[in-house]
Each structure stands twice: as structure tokens, then as C-alpha cells.
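Sequence, please.
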């Protein structure tokens, strides 16, 4: 949905505006599966509306702080200070240009979390030990989605899945 001419980072509300302009869907709900970054952006906005706090603050209060993930944060555009961050560059002739951010880097529901290796280990432990989610919710998250025709997708609630195995 993003115009090819887009050069500035989109916000969540820019994505919402793009979604609002759509008059049809790719297929009828439940008949097929297609990953949607826009869907996750919309989910982040729903979390903000329901909780009355920013998605960034929600993650901090409900995931990062309880798990002692002290080196994790949500990227919210160029104003976000990310200590010890590595940057990506692309060669242009004899010089390099910083190019590691895309036009969707500042959208939040679909990504934008920066973390350290140690904090990632804390996250993995929380998933493996069912610290954040109940057994029932985690089982749902790691289960393939089922379409209206009875077939299954290779996607759960945020995880690519195979029978009996999940991929974060």
C-alpha cells in the first residue's frame, strides 16, 4: 500500500490512513492467509486505545520491565536514543551512506524493538518458561491458524509455525 514515491518514515497513523483508503481486500476473510504488517500496526494502535498509553510504554511496563530487559526499547523515529546501537551503511561509489532505516522503521506494532543479546535471552526464557503467557495462550500462539476450508496456515499469533514447533 505504500507509494513507491514514499521517502520519509511512515507513522502508525500514516499506515492507518493507507488502510482506511482501501475499498476491498485480497480475499474474503478466513479463505486464505497473507502476512500483514499493517495488521500489526493496527493492533498496536488498538493496544494504545484500550490501555490509554503509548505502545512503547505498554511494552516497557508489561514486558521489558517485568523481565528485567533493561537494554530494550521501541524505536519511535529519529528522536529515539538507542545506546550502543550499530548502524547499517550502503556503498555509493567511493563513499558510504547510512541506510539501515526504511520507510516503515518507525511503525511500532509490526516491529521496531531494539534489544541486546542478553535481553533477547531473557525474552527467550520467558517464552520457553511461559512467564508472560499462560500455557493456554501460548499454545494458541504456537498453533497453526485454520482457514474456513479446514486447511491450516504456517502462522500462529506472531510466530511462523510447523506442526509441533514454533519459530520466533
Amino acid at each position: 500500500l505504500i507509494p513507491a514515491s514514499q521517502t520519509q518514515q511512515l507513522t502508525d497513523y500514516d499506515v492507518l490512513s493507507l488502510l482506511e483508503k482501501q475499498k476491498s481486500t485480497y480475499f474474503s476473510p478466513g479463505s486464505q492467509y497473507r502476512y500483514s504488517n499493517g495488521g500489526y500496526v493496527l493492533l498496536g494502535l488498538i493496544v494504545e486505545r484500550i490501555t490509554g498509553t503509548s505502545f512503547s510504554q505498554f511494552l516497557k511496563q508489561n514486558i521489558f520491565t517485568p523481565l528485567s530487559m533493561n537494554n530494550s526499547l521501541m524505536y519511535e523515529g529519529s528522536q529515539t536514543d538507542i545506546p550502543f546501537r550499530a548502524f547499517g551503511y550502503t556503498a555509493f561509489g567511493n563513499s558510504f551512506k547510512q541506510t539501515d532505516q526504511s520507510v516503515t522503521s518507525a511503525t511500532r506494532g509490526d516491529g521496531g524493538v531494539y534489544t541486546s543479546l542478553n535481553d533477547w535471552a531473557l525474552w527467550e526464557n520467558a517464552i520457553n518458561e511461559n512467564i508472560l503467557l499462560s500455557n493456554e495462550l501460548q499454545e494458541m500462539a504456537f498453533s497453526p491458524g485454520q482457514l474456513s476450508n479446514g486447511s491450516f496456515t504456517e502462522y500462529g499469533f506472531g510466530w511462523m509455525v510447523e506442526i509441533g514447533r514454533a519459530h520466533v
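The chain has a mean pLDDT of 89.
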